[in-house]
């Protein structure tokens, strides 16, 4: 690949230059960038073709690389550093307790805050301190498309705003509740960053103590949220909708609680992603008739 060598800080300023080959990715290492050059234009040097990634699976949050599952070995780390040149590599073993605090190992670099743009929304967070569900992107997009302007929505496990922000951008009015103080601080910043202050009322605490009034819709984005169905059902109206997240189908449990509360539930199931062998992260859309 023919390249021109420039400081990394020049990347954005040259992207529209007529000599830049936009069909190839620049190579960046440290503060230096090797920018692809079209045929017929001056170039500084030729880079060998980059070999494909040969390591185990990971995902990127900004320029931070994240491993789940078993701790990666040195070979996997070296391969990921070669391929992505991340600022930091984290191994997240699990998310603990009701506050969903990440249990982490820092394998390379230093954790930091990032700002991620997803489906047109901005999310500021530090993946070493709070949870961010990368695999829920399509579910967030789906929610943003189905909520209606002016709906009053309870987001019972708001986190940093995974569903609050897309729904508010779509014009809904959100009552966002989050029990983790760190997540709540990022939630407040993301509300401001996305300029949806007029659409969101946010509170830090246990959602069971914060629910008030009636809602047109409720987001229940925690795998144990079905245990709180009696709490939210007393605040729902006819023809309102619950979005209950779980591992595998729990429609029977949901139906039982809805009937006890005096509703006839119409339940449809949506798969979000594979969670583990024989386990799926699913969402039950529950229309309360």
From TrEMBL:
Residues 58-289 form the SAM-dependent methyltransferase TRM5/TYW2-type domain. It comes from the Archaea. InterPro entries: MeTrfase_TRM5/TYW2, SAM-dependent_MTases_sf, TRM5-TYW2-like_MTfase. One of its GO terms (molecular function) is tRNA methyltransferase activity. It holds the Pfam family TRM5-TYW2_MTfase. One of its GO terms (biological process) is tRNA methylation. GO terms for cellular component: cytoplasm. Keywords: Methyltransferase, S-adenosyl-L-methionine, Transferase, tRNA processing. This is SAM-dependent methyltransferase. It comes from Methanomicrobium antiquum. The lineage of its organism: Archaea, Methanobacteriati, Methanobacteriota, Stenosarchaea group, Methanomicrobia.
């Amino acid at each position: 690949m023919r390249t021109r060598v420039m400081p990394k800080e020049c990347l954005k300023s040259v992207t529209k230059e007529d000599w830049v080959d936009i069909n190839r990715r620049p190579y960046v290492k440290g503060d230096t960038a090797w920018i692809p050059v079209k045929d017929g234009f001056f170039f500084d040097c030729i880079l060998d073709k980059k070999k494909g990634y040969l390591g185990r699976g990971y995902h990127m949050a900004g320029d931070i690389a994240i491993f789940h599952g078993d701790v990666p070995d040195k070979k996997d780390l070296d391969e990921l550093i070669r391929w992505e040149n991340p600022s930091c590599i984290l191994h997240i073993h699990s998310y603990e307790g009701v506050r969903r605090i990440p249990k982490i190992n820092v394998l390379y670099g230093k954790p930091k805050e990032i700002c991620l743009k997803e489906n047109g929304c901005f999310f500021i967070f530090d993946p070493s301190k709070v949870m961010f569900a990368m695999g829920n992107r399509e579910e967030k997009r789906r929610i943003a498309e189905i909520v209606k302007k002016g709906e009053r929505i309870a987001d019972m496990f708001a986190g940093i705003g995974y569903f609050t922000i897309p729904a508010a951008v779509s014009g809904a009015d959100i009552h966002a509740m989050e029990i983790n103080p760190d997540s709540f601080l990022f939630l407040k910043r993301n509300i401001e960053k996305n300029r949806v202050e007029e659409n969101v009322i946010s509170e830090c605490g246990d959602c069971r103590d914060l629910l008030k009034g009636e809602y047109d819709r409720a987001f229940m984005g925690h795998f144990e949220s079905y245990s709180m169905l009696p709490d939210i059902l007393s605040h729902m109206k006819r023809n309102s909708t619950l979005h209950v997240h779980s591992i595998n189908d729990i429609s029977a449990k949901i139906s039982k609680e809805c009937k006890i509360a005096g509703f006839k539930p119409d339940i449809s199931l949506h798969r979000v992603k594979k969670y583990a062998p024989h386990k799926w992260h699913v969402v039950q859309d529950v229309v309360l008739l």
